[in-house]
Amino acid sequence: MSDKEAAVSVVRNRLREKGMRFTPQRAAILDAVLQGSGHFNADEAVLQLRRKDVSRATVYRMLPILVECGILDRAFRHDGRQCYERIYGGAHHDHLLCLQCGQAIEFRDDRIETIQESICRTEKFQPSSHRLVIHGICARCTRKGKKKGS
What we know:
Layout: H1 3-17, H2 24-35, E1 39-41, H3 42-49, H4 56-68, E2 72-78, E3 81-86, E4 94-98, E5 104-107, H5 110-122, E6 133-136, H6 139-149
Parallel strand pairs: 4-6
Antiparallel strand pairs: 1-3, 2-3, 4-5
Helix pairs in contact: 1-2, 2-4, 3-4
């Protein structure tokens, strides 16, 4: 079974559990998510799927289901909007989020992971997931700010 077939199966089962059908519109949303990369908010997904005749309401209802299924994650909030990213088939990573331009820089540092695992062991805590987002100003915005203030 391919990754896409496995994802479709997971989503179909979850929808069935909720008494919902796997409609062509929901399939289009899942397909767009599986083909996409990077971070997006619900409004961006609506714009992308508009040409496939997928309603705003369907997108907004489907995104939390895809989170429940482990296809998407709520990565961070920017400008008051929830940003998502595909995690299905991807490796864990954390984010640096620029407060000026909204750029999200993905990174992974095994030292951070080791410290978190150690803390969980010490506290006898069983983690199910974690998310690290460091907010600040990216290098590009810092350079722009120095040029304006010079």
